[in-house]
Amino acid sequence: MRTEYKHNPPIPYSLHDMRVKKIIIQDQTIALEFEDGYEKLTEPFEQVEGNITIEGVDFDCTCVMLQSKWGNYGKFNGEKLELEHFIKRYKNYSFEIVNELYGYNQVLYSGYLSILETEDLVQMDISIYFTGKIIYDTKE
């Protein structure tokens, strides 16, 4: 027997090349505030201002992975952080999302962390396990 499966959930907006300027934790939610919003995936495919809230987050299964500078290949000294610890450590940053992956109750945002005190970019992933909704709050 052959069973084929391709999970491709319909998402209303693309976060590719969009910059997160702040991450806020409140109760079991995470709010991502964006510098310039994100891209609408329906005609006319325009950029809209907005933020995202993720509900029902399990913080025991949510983390930030800091990897190599500039996304270089080879050996590096990385760091895995609880999201709350990341927020406390980094105050003046932006996180440019390059890839977004959605699975069963999980989201992975991959991209580059830019820290205002340094010129180096650090490859970074935010992995979030959640049981609620992803809410796109736009100003359109």
Total count of helical runs of at least 4 residues: 1
What distance lies between the first and last C-alpha atoms, to the nearest angstrom?
48 Å
Order of helices and strands: EEEEEEEEHEEEE
State the strand order across the main sheet.
8-7-11-10-9-2-3-6-12
Cα-atom Rg, whole angstroms?
Answer: 16 Å
Determine the strand fraction and express it as a percent band. over 45%
The stretches of 5 or more residues where confidence is low (pLDDT under 50) are none
| Largest sheet: number of strands, sense, barrel closure | 9 strands, antiparallel
Q: How many strands appear in the DSSP assignment?
A: 12
How many separate domains?
Answer: 1
* Class from helix and strand fractions: mainly beta
Global mean pLDDT: 93
Shape: globular
Give helix % range.
Answer: under 10%
